[in-house]
Amino acid sequence: MTLPIILASLWLAGWMVLGRIKACPPAADVTAVRKQELSVIIPARNEEYNLPRLLDSLRGQPVPPDEIIVVNDASTDRTAAVARELGAIVLEAPSLPDGWRGKTWACYQGALQAKGEWLLFLDADTWFEPAGLPAVLAEFAQRGGALSVAPWHRVEKLHEQFSVFFNLIMLGGTGGFTLLGDRLSPRGLLGQFLLIEAAAYRRIGGHEAVKGQILENFRLAEKLRPAGVPLRCRGGRGVFSFRMYPLGWREMMDGWVKGFATGAGKTPVPLLLLVIAWLSGLLMAAGGLFSAHIAPLGCVVYGLYAAQVAWLMRRVGTFRWTTAVLFPVPLIFYFAVFTRSVWRATRKKSVTWKGRQIHVD
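RESULT FIELD:
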């Protein structure tokens, strides 16, 4: 009976970490959810193809933001021109100083110019669903502080299916989606979306406090929590979406390598142990399916883990059901990329991203 108990415990670890992926409910009154001036800040480097979808989605909201600032981070394409054509305020980021990351520098420049009492930092490859912004603002207005929303992953091509475990573990590492819900303050915030009170942002020094970090929002949480700022994480289904790495395998691998080893190194030990336990269970379930001496048990266990993956992935994106059935394949890919990420962090200490050499934390 020892093996079934171990497998059941490891299976439960997944629920403990990701058992409550709560989305923002629709706003009851979309025209009365905002009581403060809202500034949207979008750091953008070579984003001419992504910006139109995001900017159009912002302009199409029932109550658009008061200002939209696109900070052009030394782009070599038409990023700035596209942003201006679509009505955004465009700031040219000054030359990147020593010790700063491109994104943190761009976010900081935008925040310095923003007039709003609420600041919303967005990645350029995201977009709002219809009436998504009022839903987010209504959720934020309940407690203020800082809110991070995990974008709903729109999956279109085959290679994008292989991001499923990266998405799940990224959410799990924040501590914002456990079975305890809001009773446990998140240990980190997600990088694509941060809505924060301007006063709280400036009180902890803004992005200057995390200027050299890759996972800047994760690190901002470490500054906000001791300052008494309430933190929350929500899922983006029906509210806020993105499409990650549509250009192919190379873009996807470099993108995940860029920050994943850093994220693992900063995940609190209890959460990290639960994630490791769940991943171990997934591996054991995959291996047990092909072990002749435990074949009946192996099939049952494999089915339980596949069903769990299916339930979880349907709460983070439009992944196919076959991805859950064949979960060992994206799981092996996850371990391969994670190993490469650790190697980059410990040996080469750098990765190329959008034409810029980035030193890994």
